[in-house]
Design brief:
- By secondary structure, this protein is α+β, with helices and mostly antiparallel strands.
- 35% of the residues lie in helices and 19% in strands.
- It has nine helices and nine strands.
- It has a seven-stranded antiparallel beta sheet with strand order 1-6-5-3-7-9-8, with helices on both faces. A two-stranded parallel ribbon has the order 2-4.
- The longest helix has 23 residues.
């Protein structure tokens, strides 16, 4: 406790107590127990499916992109990497449902049990929601993304809660206009906990970073604008989707929109 600054605090100490405690609990050398994948038996995936994903009603089927066209027309990786940057101020032209579908397919779509980003133990504890403000072909509202079926499931319509969520994202990015679309990543802590115990939250945050990188590279290849955010209102979001924040909580946000 003293080492983590919980008993005393030095003026030269650059760490806050809770940050140092988190660090020591997730790195070998400090921990008193072995860290890594545990031998606990996991539970079947259906036990962890959110209410929104389990709901077969109010689904919007997305048309996936044609892979052969992407292979033929995508810019080189070096060009995409050079273009990758945060874009806070979005254009006036709303994205189309086709652009949104392609972006989600490139970034999050699950095929053969795998997604385009790494996950500890391939457990994929993250769930994606979309707060849609302006998108041609998709009505404003809150949607869950089914990564396996490549479909959107309506969770809620326009309202004060959605407006607060979008305004909060704009404020975090220090811009006046609400984003066209806000992606919200939530985590099911239980799924990761079964495999990695004390490492669980650390791995969840690393996975959020991996999703952000894949999303920004996809946007750069498509000519879209993205901006990752990291301090959204988790309690507000859990209230909007009607889930206990200790069961499923938001852990990262990303603004998505057009450049022009």
């Amino acid at each position: 406790m003293s080492q983590c600054g919980l008993l005393e605090r030095s003026e030269q100490d650059a760490w806050s107590g809770h940050d140092l405690f988190f660090h020591t609990r997730t790195r070998r050398g400090y921990a008193r127990t072995l860290l890594g994948k545990s031998t606990l038996e996991g539970q079947s995936d259906h036990q962890f499916r959110t209410t929104a994903i389990a709901n077969d009603e109010r689904r919007l089927v997305l048309e996936p992109p044609i892979l052969s066209s992407l292979f033929a027309t995508d810019p080189p990786y070096a060009a995409v990497s050079a273009r990758r940057q945060s874009v806070r101020r979005q254009g006036s032209t709303a994205l189309t449902s086709g652009q949104l579908s392609e972006f989600l397919f490139r970034t999050l779509c699950e095929q053969g049990g795998r997604r385009p980003y790494p996950s500890g133990g391939a457990s994929y504890p993250l769930q994606t929601y979309l707060a849609v403000n302006r998108c041609r072909g998709v009505a404003p509202g809150l949607y869950a993304y089914d990564a396996t079926a490549h479909e959107l499931i309506a969770v809620g319509g326009p309202g004060l809660g959605l407006e607060r969520l979008l305004a909060d994202a704009a404020g975090t990015a220090n811009v006046d206009e609400s984003p066209q679309i806000l992606l919200v990543l939530t985590a099911d802590y239980r799924r990761m906990r079964l495999l990695y115990e004390d490492l669980s939250y650390s791995l969840i945050l690393k996975e959020v970073g991996a999703v952000f990188q894949v999303a920004m590279m996809a946007a750069a290849a498509m000519g879209l604008g993205t901006c990752p955010l990291g301090c959204g209102d988790s309690l507000l979001f859990s209230e909007l989707i009607g889930v206990d924040p200790t069961i499923e909580t938001s852990v990262g946000e990303l603004m998505l929109g057009s450049l022009e």
